[in-house]
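Human: If only I could read backbone structure tokens as easily as an amino acid sequence. Underneath my words sits a plain record pairing an amino acid chain with its backbone structure tokens. Take your time, and here it is.
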Amino acid sequence: MAIIKAIIDGNYNPTGLAMLAEENCKATKEIIAKSLEGIWAEDQLFELKQAYDQYWFIQGQIRQCDRQIEMHLTRYRAYLDSGAYTMQKEDRQEKCS
């Protein structure tokens, strides 16, 4: 992500961009730098920015969903722990049939 962010911010230097690669990347910095050489077309940079923004928007949506799920699970656990929910043996057998 650091490389993409740097490109969006206007850094097109292949060597500088390669230095931003994560340490666990299998490719060498030289191969990464060579891969980043080329012409940066304005329309492609625009598309890259759109995709980058969309990625972070969706990450925010996922975080909101996670918080909502956690809230509901907390309430459900409290409900179960309160003892308000009990199912008789006959009810369980009836629901399973």
User: Anything to note?
Assistant: The CA atoms of residues 19 and 73 lie 43 Å apart. The mean pLDDT is 91. The helical segments are 2-8, 14-18, 29-35, 42-82, 89-96.
